[in-house]
# Entry
Amino acid sequence: LGKKGIKVPSGFATTADAYRAYLSANDLDARIDDVIGRWQDNKITLHEAGSQVRAMILAGDWPQDIEADILESYRELSRRAGAKDLPVAVRSSATAEDLPDASFAGQQETYLNVRGDAAVLASCRRCFASLFTDRAITYRQMKGFGHTKVALSIGVQRMVRSDTGGSGVMFSIDTESGFDKIALINAAWGLGENVVQGAVNPDEYQVYKPFLARPGLTPIVAKNLGEKEIKMIYANQEGGETRNVPTSKAERAAWVLSDAEILDLARMAVTIEDHYGQPMDMEWARDGDTGEIFIVQARPETVQSRADAGAIKSYTVKKSGKTLVTGLSVGSGVAAGRVSIIESAKDIDRFVDGSILVTSTTDPDWVPIMKRASAIVTDHGGRTSHAAIVSRELGLPAIVGTGNATHILHDEQEVTVSCAGGGEGVISEGIAEFEAEDLRIDDLPKTRTHIMLNMANPSAAFRWWRLPFDGVGLARMEFVVNNAIKVHPMALVHFDQLKDEAAKAEIAEVTKGYADKTEFFVDGLARGLSQIAAVAYPKPVIVRMSDFKTNEYAELLGGRQFEPSEENPMIGFRGASRYYSPRYEAGFALECKAIH
# Structure
């Protein structure tokens, strides 16, 4: 892939045979089988079994030839980089990872910023031992894999200085709908572990892949600024390692990637997807010193690419209570039940089967409890976090990156978790009325009439890409404004003259990153309409310019100051009569700019 412009950090890998040789040299195979057997016979606990096996592996001695090979390869890597004790990432790769029906990803350990001979050897041992974490043992048992049949390779890669740059995760497919013309990118400051673990709410970018090869176009159809509350940096200790620190206000308010970098990454996603011939899940890192972007991992996407392409399950919430919390939706399902708040993996025993798991963040230790939940809600994380990926694999509705669910919700509270409304997931009070409908696309009759869709919510548009339709017959612009922007255009034009201080503060927050606040409206509207158009292209999309009634416009942020009070808004100041009025002319100009 290097010949195709993909930068990969230089490094080396130990083989699965080296792992087997390590076990054999230390007479570990029979001893591991014995410990696992005693656990399977309920003579010891899972925790005891895992601890004993890991201790055996960590106490082992390296076969001389393998130790010599690892150290020579590490020293050669350092020499090539012109450094003594080059910082490296020591990454696990198990032989059973990324199978179509079993994803072991994330269960084995990765160690970052490892420096020096002794630290490299110790990290390699710890990678071997991580094959026997409690979660890995449980998962193999559940999937029927022999515990000593799975082996492990270790990738040792030069560290990219993303501690001073940024990093994240990228999919060559939309993770929620399986829409194959979108690349999804998550980004945060510092090393990438926080994005993978879901410890941070990252920036999110969506790119329309078919237009990447067209010069002069910037086919970014969605940009969402994440809070990025923390970043992982080098700890500057002997032997390396890392620590988390808070980000600055400037970092939280800024995009991690420029538009040019977003497009470069999306092009890499297309190249990697073409190379492997299937949708891919990738990790990337940007060096803060050189600005170069590297791909540090690529694995097959194993959920949407295996979904039943001929089936659509559609959920409709008919009646629900007041909204308590919102976040990023994962999937399109709905679940109702009682909340079970679990702050730490140590308290997993307190979880009530079938309840809604609410927690700060999850990692692979949480998988056994996640399987027993009806829905999952987290304070932190994006659509590529651990909680999101596992929820998709399990087919559970999840809402991630809520920011405050563990503070707002309480144990045994009855709530409804709805991912049916598109990109924003909603947790509402009480048990809502909802229904699910199964649709087989293969069963739809062929019609002589051209059938077009009505679409209004950009974040839900990708859900319908598999339907056989002939374009979009009506995209109501005001619905896009209401769903994607939520701010009155004239409140942006006359921001400095706003009298409502609360609305002014909220608008300042949502327009972070925009020196000219009107550009927030133009970008949001253009991208929202583009998400709808991306699903239909090259078929036509008919967009109707805004047609809010005055009482509806007044409900937008900052809107009351710019709207008259009308006895009958149905036949009042709306439609074309508004476009050329001095009261709205500047707002209509923003609509035209967005269309352009």
